[in-house]
Amino acid sequence: MGQAQSGTEKEVTLQHIQGLHRKFATECPSGNLHLHECRRIFGINRNSTEEESAYMENLFRSFDMNQDGKLDFMEYVAAVHLVLRGKPEDKPRWSFKVYDRDGNGCLDRQEVRHIVKIIYAIKKHNDPSITGDIDDICDRLFDVVDKNNDSQISVEEFMEGAERDPWVMDQLKLDIGPCDWFIEQQEKNP
């Protein structure tokens, strides 16, 4: 789920949102969405790559505000809203939260390497001509963003680095239109 919207991206209509609510009510009669249900709703299955599955886990965890292992409808709506309609300035902060796997408020090299590896595997799957060495990218990210050289990237460093150097966000985003992806998934899994 990318951080930028293109001018050619489809619009998510009220009909799509209503369909999403119906799907939530049908798939989650308990009123809570668990990771396995989220995977099914968004088309992540046995045919999905390991990277797509890992990315979905990170997304799910980032939207589980109270960390109870499930999304209630309000958490779900907030997630969909941020991904499809969120302000551009909110997306780097949200991306940081997705990448911060242990929730300690800092990204270490292992977390950065993990997300860069996932993103590059998905990008390469979509475009085999993409090249890049994961360790070199991680080293450059730390050189550009870790201003106090403590081998951890704080949310403030991340936000400043993303704003100052477009290369940073280019390395940490998936180049898919979230609205197009959302509509495609809804059409695949009515």
Descriptive account of the structure:
This protein is mainly alpha-helical and 190 residues long. 61% of the residues lie in helices and 5% in strands. The protein has ten helices and four strands. The protein has helices at 14-27, 35-41, 50-63, 73-85, 90-99, 109-126, 134-145, 155-164, 166-171, 178-188; strands at residues 32-33, 71-72, 106-108, 152-154. The strands form two sheets. It has a two-stranded antiparallel sheet with strand order 1-2. Strands 3-4 form a two-stranded antiparallel ribbon. Helix 3 (50-63) packs across helix 5 (90-99).
Unreliable runs: 1-8
Give the spatial strand order of the biggest sheet.
1-2
| Strand coverage percent | 5-15%
Question: Helicity level, as a percent range?
Answer: 55-70%
Rounded average pLDDT: 77
- C-alpha end-to-end distance: 20 Å
- What profile does the largest beta sheet have? 2 strands, antiparallel
Q: How many helical elements?
A: 10
**Shape from CA axes?**
globular
The helix/strand series, from N terminus to C terminus, equals HEHHEHHEHHEHHH
Number of strands: 4
As a whole number of angstroms, the C-alpha radius of gyration is: 17 Å
Structural category? mainly alpha
How would you concisely characterize the structure shown here?
By secondary structure, the protein is mainly α. The protein has helices spanning 14-27, 35-41, 50-63, 73-85, 90-99, 109-126, 134-145, 155-164, 166-171, 178-188; strands spanning 32-33, 71-72, 106-108, 152-154.
